[in-house]
Amino acid sequence: MNTILNKFQGVGVALITPFDKNRKIDSEALRRLIYNIEDGGVDYLLALGTTAETATMTKAEKNEVVSLVKQYNKKSIPIMLGMGGNCTSALVEEIKSTDFSGIDAILSVTPYYNKPSQRGLFEHFSAIAEASPVPVFLYNVPGRTGVNLKPETVIELAKKYRGKIVGIKEASGIVSQSEEIVKALGNEDFCVLSGDDNKTPELMAVGARGVISVSVNAFPQKVKTMVDAIMHGDKSTANRVYNQLYETTELLFKEGNPTGIKAALSILGVIDNNLRLPLVPASESLFEEIRNQIQKDNLC
Fold it and tell me: Which of 94, 175, 223, 233 is the most exposed place for a label (fewest CB within 10 A)?
């Protein structure tokens, strides 16, 4: 496996962005969060992904978050940067104007709302690959974007841009898509990562090399233990931890993301439970469900 893929196997965290009561970036809470995550053994950080509420931020705020993530990355683990959009030319210009010092790769989501064809997706990601000075991971999440990046398109992109387009975060919920990609490309030059916490064991069973996780924000040691156990063939440990996490993880997505994970983190005392419109905090009933499940499963 090439050097860049060694950095991005195992457990990555799709970082949330903590906000204070005025909905401003809470730098102290972000510091606590990152320190806790790194102490839990997480392998890399994803800044400005969907979970970060990136769509609600100004350019200056995005730059602030990236700067803080770099500053608080005390263990100097790899950083992946979310960079996506539905205007290819604007995204290319953003990439060209970005300072990539301290950034090891980008994660780029399929264009949302305008629902391009597979050929349009191929051309979009080709433009990103040609503009980016760092390796590119694709991000397929049809439930959010309205378009499914099909395996044949992924395979075509990976072969044309070998060493530049190096992986995919697969969150379509269709395990066979990951299996088809792994069979065609292997694991040496291309890496499939789970984009769905509770499907991670299924995807790793067909060749995925880990997960970019939401729940790991709150439960880093548990998620890391589970994924390491899967990678080392320790089914007993993997199943035990998966079963311990499963119900709580399901609740985290009941009212959308990052609504659930921010509720969990506030219950654990890591952040205040503040989101930016159009997102709102978890309902009182869900908040109590999450609290009770965390206690029941000994995740405190």
Answer: 233
